[in-house]
């Protein structure tokens, strides 16, 4: 299985277009300690030139331009992208679908909840169902989005997308609004969880034994957006675990056996984005890698 990190940042990328938090200031100044990052997505393949995208970020056009494996190979129109698999309806995971509207066939997979959100918003009709069939996948039922690849959705504690929040918002519920994906090929297993509000026994069991884990790395500290003066929400309020602390991801998953563990969907305020920072050294010492755009893995 081949895996390419197309984008490693949370919504807005790094630096965000209007942000001057400490991390973004370094990025705007060209400081080499902070690599610019686009919004999160990965591509996977079992070989043969067929690729599947896990989420379609608003930066998809530039991500394809930066990734030769995803570029047209022959004829007047062509794409190696055989399918897109969505983990939720967040803007940073679905807006890139609008880039894929030029009558190019591929399959679009999601839960009934996520596909329902697309159906309710007519702008996504430009991704014509005649070329792009929408396929609802059930929890616990494997599906094959491309030759040699088997995937399966599983529930993850989370919340509805920001643009769907209302007074009845429930954070940490397990539903079709936020899911993880298990990807299996040639006897190797990848687990992809770009958004997560809590670690449950079932989630731990799902991740245990994976050859490669991509996990929600949105914030380093739960209150970092507040202390940076650029937001009013904690990570918990946004439906994301933080990396650090007794209730953070590093501690909660310390005893879960995986081959390699990688943080993805990293917010622009996260100091672990700064190469050489204490926060980066801490997560790396705990066995984690902070994803960057263009990283490749071979399983």
Automatic annotation (TrEMBL):
InterPro entries: Metallo-B-lactamas, PQQ_synth_PqqB, RibonucZ/Hydroxyglut_hydro
Domain Metallo-beta-lactamase residues, every copy: 51-266
Any single GO BP term: pyrroloquinoline quinone biosynthetic process
Keyword Transport: yes
Pfam families in UniProt: Lactamase_B_2 (PF12706)
SUPFAM superfamilies: Metallo-hydrolase/oxidoreductase
Keywords: PQQ biosynthesis, Transport
Record carries keyword Transport: yes
Pathway stated in the Swiss-Prot or TrEMBL entry: Cofactor biosynthesis; pyrroloquinoline quinone biosynthesis
NCBIfam families cross-referenced by the UniProt entry: PQQ_syn_pqqB
Function: May be involved in the transport of PQQ or its precursor to the periplasm.
Name under which the protein is recorded: Coenzyme PQQ synthesis protein B
Source organism (scientific name): Xanthobacter dioxanivorans
